Amino acid sequence: MKTNYFNRIFGYAWVFKKYFILNIVSNIFYAFFGTLSMISLFPMLKVLFNQTEQLTTPPLWNGVSDLVNYFEDYLNYFVTVKKAEGSDDVLMFMVGIIVITFLLKNIFNYLSMFFITYLRNGVVKNIRNDIYNSIIRLSLSFYSEKKRGDIVARISSDVQELDNSFLSIFELIVKDPLMVIFTLISMFIISPKLSIFVIIFIPLCGFVISLVGKSLRRKSLKVQKEQGQFISLVDETLSGMKILKIFNAENKFIEKFMNSTNRFYRFSNSVLNRKNLASPLSEFLGITAISGVLWVGGMMVLKENSLDASAFIVYLGLAYNILTPAKSLSRATYKVKKATAAADRIFEIIDNRTIISEEKNAREINEFNDSITIKNMSFSYENDKVINDLNLTIPKGMNIALVGQSGSGKSTLANLICRFYDVNEGEIFFDNINICELKKKSLRQLIGLVTQDSILFNDSIKNNMLIAKPDATDEEIINSLKIANAWEFIKILPGKIETNIGDSGNKLSGGQKQRLSIARAVLKNPPILILDEATSALDSESEKLVQDALDKLMKNKTSVVIAHRLSTIQKADMIVVLNKGRIVQAGKHNELMKKGGIYSNLVKMQSI
C-alpha cells in the first residue's frame, strides 16, 4: 500500500492503540512459543534415538552465551538420573513439554486475533463514519458528477476490501516477521551453514512473487469502478421501474447490466488469478528451499558428520515452520496491493474539498429583519452559464414568484439563496450581510424548503417531522399536521404519527407526501420560505388541499415561490420573469398581463 495510505490507516488504528499493543504482545508470545514448540521436539528425539550423554552431575551455568550447551547438558543429566532411578517418567515429561508449548502457542494466537478484531472493526467503523460525514458535507455540485451507486460502493464494498487487508497488514508488520525472526535465530543456533542458505533463498522468493503482483493494483481499481457502475445501474433501475416497464426497456437495461457484470467478471478473474497464484507460488518456492535444505543438511549428517540427525530433523521442522508465515506474507502483499485501489476511492471522498466553505469567524444570524438582496450575481454549472448578472431585492414579508421556461434559472436561484452552491460572481446579502460571512447552519435555520419531489425518509411520520425541530412535542407535531391539512389522513392510520411511511414515503400518495413536507416546514416555522414547484405534480383535488396548506404556511412570511402552474401565483406581491438567467419582467399579475411579453404568453398558453 502507498506509504501515505498506510500511515493514514495506521492513524485510524492508533485510536485503538490499547488493542494494537495487546495484539503485539500476544504476537510476540505466539512467535516465541511457536518456535519453542518445534524446538521442544529436539529433546524428545534425543531420548527416542538414545542419544543423550550420560551425566551424573548437574551442569554449571556459564552465562547466556553458553545457553544451548547448558540446556543440552541439563537434559542429559535429567535423563541419566531418571534412568538410574528406573523411572518411566522421561517420555511423559517430554510429551508434556510439547503439549504445553503448542497449547501456549495457540492461546496467544487466539488472543492476537481477539484483540485485532476490535482494532479492525473499530477502524472500519471510523472510516465509514468519515466517509458519511464527507458525503453529508460535500457540495451538491459533487453529486452532479458522481453516480449514487458509486458512492454506495465506496462506503460498502471498498471499505470491506480495506477491512480484508487489515489483518494481513498487521500480521505483515508483527506476527509473521516475528515468527520468521525467532525461527531463524533457532535455526542459526542449530546450524549457521544451513541458515545462510535459507536467508539467501528468501529474498529471491520475494522478488519472484513481487513480479507477479505488479499489475494487481491497476486491475483492482478497474474491479472497484465497475462494481460502482453496476450498483448505480441497479439504483437507477429501482428508481425508474415504471418508466422501464411502460417503454418496454427491460431488455435494454438487462443488456447494460450484463455488459457491466461481464466486465466485472473479466476484471475479477484477472485479479483473483494473480492473487491465487501467491499461495501455490510461495509454497513451490518454499518446498524448493526445503529440498535444498534436505540436500545440504543430508550431506552434513551422512558424509561430514557435522550435524546430529535429531538436530537435523528439528531443523527441517523449523524450516517448514517458516513456510506458513512466508505464504501469509506473500498473500498479504497481494491483498495490500488490491486494497490500495479501494483506498484510492475511499480517500477521494474523505479528502474531497468540493464543499461550501465557511469563514473562520463566520457570523451567527438568528432572525431575519430586512431583506434578501442579490447584486450582480452570475453562476455556471461547469461551462453552462445559468444565472447572468442578476439583481433582485426581496423585502421581508413579501411573496415573490419566480416564473419562466425550463432552464431559465429559477431553481438555481433558490439553491443559491439556500447556499447549496456558491456564486461565481456577485453577492447575496441577508440583512446587508454577505451570506459567505454567515454560518451555514444559522443561515439555513431561517429558511424552509418545500420541493416538487417530496423528500421523505424510511421512518415514522414523527421522526420525519422531528428533522425540522428535534425537540418538538407530539402536540406541536399534530398541530403542524393540522395546519398542513395532513392530520385528516394521518389520524386514521393504525400507528398515527408513529406509522412508518416506507422508502421515500412510498406508502403515501403524492398529495399526502407533499402535505407532510409542508407540515415539516410549518413545524420549523422559519421566517423565509422557498417553494420549488410544490404543487406541479399533483392532481386537482390534492393541489387544492396543498395550496390551502401553502397559503397558511406563507402567512406573515417572506416567500420565494417557483411556479409551473401560473394560476397559483397570481396573488403574489411581485412576479419575477426569468429568461436565460436574466430578469426580463417584474411586477404584479395584472401589470404584467397589460404589458404583454413572456409572462402574458405563458399565461395564455396555460389557459388554452
List keywords for this structure.
alpha/beta; ABC transporter transmembrane region fold; Rossmann fold; six-stranded mixed β-sheet; four-stranded antiparallel β-sheet
Nearest-integer average pLDDT: 76
What characteristic shape results from the CA principal axes? elongated
Q: How much is the radius of gyration in Å?
A: 37 Å
Query: What's the arrangement of strands in the largest beta sheet?
Result: 6-7-8-3-9-10
Helix content: 55-70%
Distance between the termini: 66 Å
CATH class of the largest domain: Mainly Alpha
Largest beta-sheet characterization: 6 strands, mixed
Provide the CATH topology of the largest domain.
ABC transporter transmembrane region fold
Describe the structure.
- It is a single chain.
- It is built from 21 helices and ten strands.
- The chain starts with a helix and ends with a helix.
- It has two domains: about 5-350, ABC transporter type 1, transmembrane domain (ABC transporter transmembrane region fold), CATH 1.20.1560.10; about 370-605, 3-Layer(aba) Sandwich (Rossmann fold), CATH 3.40.50.
- A hairpin with a 2-residue loop joins β9 (about 575-580) and β10.
- It has about 600 residues and is an alpha/beta fold.
- The protein is elongated and about 125 Å long.
- α3 (about 40-50) runs antiparallel to α12, α11 packs antiparallel against α12 and α16 (about 475-485) crosses α18 (about 510-525).
- The model has no long low-confidence stretch (mean pLDDT about 75).
- The protein has helices at about 5-15, 15-40, 40-50, 65-85, 90-135, 140-145, 150-190, 190-210, 215-240, 240-245, 250-305, 310-350, 410-415, 440-445, 460-465, 475-485, 485-490, 510-525, 540-555, 590-595, 600-605, and strands at about 370-380, 385-395, 400-405, 425-430, 435, 445-450, 530, 560, 575-580, 580-585.
- The strands form two sheets. A six-stranded mixed β-sheet has the order 6-7-8-3-9-10, with helices on both faces. Strands 2-1-4-5 form a four-stranded antiparallel β-sheet, with helices on one face.
